[in-house]
């Protein structure tokens, strides 16, 4: 049995990878020579295809088709293309493939032709001041476009410059920046600028630099301090709510931060709490202000101890220090102050009827300016009844005229006056005091009998009584209750008359024995309840009438003539009932008349709607004042045939009811064509009537003001022609004005 021998590999046609350095400058450069084992008479034709030959980028590689030499025609850049894969072909002169295509791989060898690049030009980091060593702040990083598998891209980091302190270090491999030693103080240096470097070839190759900016964050490690130990200020007395001055402080911490903001406290020297101190948020200084008015005469200077500290407590790592203190001296400057009425209002009591010139009080003010020599003067600022006079120097108030009850100037028995006190400073200041004077009631009037006369039946029992009353000009408690009694000087009156109390202001006079008809005069003694009481004897005129069975007077004429304001109890009830009945009847009559007037107006308006020929429309009845409600009946003009001369002349409704018929009654026209004569005759009759006022004359009803938006009526006849008038608006007034619109429109 025959064994097949293995096929022989043609080594000449298998091409190993070819390496060429980037940036090779000797161009053209022979890379390799390919050769086919199948030599043909006339030779072999070689060709290559792929990127760099017939594909982009074109023209980098070429081949000698007869010798099979492959040349490099351009410089290579590994960062753009690190290898090229080509295909090689071998053909005879007829174009027949002699060998299968073989691969030709060209590897671009890297050179260190790229510097490292930081990802940003400036790196920023923050760390609190006083941070412990080893506290990491930030990481800087860079890149290198060279082959990462070679030292060409092996980067190392370093700090080139950071100042003399050397407070930071950097990890050479990772680029992490950390604190290297303690002592970071923002108040000493708040910002660190580091220059960092990145180098390839493990630190021995190409380099690049960047900036690393590190900010120190503030902590409260510095207490505030006053700029000096003492501050002096001054303020005017009586000033409140004003700023006196500032106390200045300095804090090394970051301005505007909570670690910088100060808080002030007044420790001593202001027991009354007249001052307050606050912090100016912009400058951090303390602003001292007055919250209560100061009085120079009471205290002219203050010396206060003020402390300051931060709103936020100090960090434990901060050095211990005592709280800052300062002395603040405030001088109170004296100014002119207005006088003061210590008793305001001043209330006094004066008896009514006090004679003029009586001193009732001395109302003075005091001047708070005890360190200044000033004189006060006084004047009456308000004295509505002109009852008082005032001494301008001593402030003594005297009566100018008698003070009496009642008066429109009294308010609940009190009279109010205002006194003005003024000093003589420049400029002068004044104060107003209220003087309230109570006018005490004095029992200076005796009660008066009301009524002083009356009528009663002269028979004891029913009807033989009369209600008596009294009035007193004095106010309580000097008035009622009143005491009525028969005059003690005439004891014989008690045989026929008696008086019994009815209430605090009235009494009942009764007949004890049957008396003949006729007039009687009874002396009565009336006394009030004042202190001391006032009494007065007065005469009561009594008319004794003839009595009826029911105890009423039969002689009504005598009773009406002599009763005056005094009446019997029975008569009083009858009169009251009659008055109420009359009022009811009058109201019904007025309502009925009003309804008739409305019905009449409605009828006239209805007829005017039916008769479009009317030139006079009943829009409203103005009349001649209160007595002229419906002066003329328009029916006389519409239907003159209904009013014949033989009929009774119509009564003028504008004439008083007590007036007689006019001396010259109107004569009605015989036909409508005589309406003008009829009106003229009626006017002449009204003017010649002496029994009634001339209601047909022009009357002034009311003044309605000026400036009306409507044109005055006089403008209709203000010109001789109608050229200036525009009557087109008459056509908008409806059918009743259509005739006028046709004439004037």
Automatic annotation (TrEMBL):
Under the heading Gene3D superfamilies, the entry gives:
Cadherins, TCF3-CBD (Catenin binding domain)
User: Does this entry carry the keyword Metal-binding?
Assistant: yes
Question: Where does it reside?
Answer: Cell membrane
Keywords of this protein's UniProt record, alphabetized?
Calcium, Cell adhesion, Cell membrane, Cleavage on pair of basic residues, Glycoprotein, Membrane, Metal-binding, Repeat, Signal, Transmembrane, Transmembrane helix
Region annotated Disordered, chain positions: 643-676
Show the GO MF annotations: beta-catenin binding; cadherin binding; calcium ion binding
Entry's Gene Ontology cellular component terms: adherens junction; catenin complex; cell surface
Q: Which CDD domains match?
A: Cadherin_repeat (cd11304)
> How does the record say this protein sits in the membrane?
Single-pass type I membrane protein
Q: Where is the Cadherin domain?
A: 12-118, 119-226, 236-341, 342-449, 464-554
Gene Ontology biological process: adherens junction organization; calcium-dependent cell-cell adhesion via plasma membrane cell adhesion molecules; cell migration; cell morphogenesis; cell-cell adhesion mediated by cadherin; cell-cell junction assembly; homophilic cell adhesion via plasma membrane adhesion molecules
Q: What is its main location?
A: membrane
What does it do? Cadherins are calcium-dependent cell adhesion proteins. They preferentially interact with themselves in a homophilic manner in connecting cells; cadherins may thus contribute to the sorting of heterogeneous cell types. M-cadherin is part of the myogenic program and may provide a trigger for terminal muscle differentiation.
| Protein name, per record | Cadherin-15
Which organism was this protein described from?
Struthidea cinerea
Where is the organism placed in the taxonomic lineage, from the top? Eukaryota, Metazoa, Chordata, Craniata, Vertebrata
